[in-house]
Amino acid sequence: MGVLPGVIGSLQATEALKHVMGVGELLTGRMLTYDSLALRFREVAVGRRRGCGACGQ
Question: What phi-psi label fits residue 33: left (phi over 0), alpha (psi between -120 and 50 degrees) or beta?
Fold first, then answer.
């Protein structure tokens, strides 16, 4: 499990660079999950909640 933080950190760094450079498709509105035992990624759509102070209107 020692390499797991490296994998997740690399994904986060990639998302940050895409955001700063304004290129590519960001994971906005989606959650990426990683199963390290099966070496699988999965995307789950995440919607906004109207009453949420951080993501709502």
Answer: beta
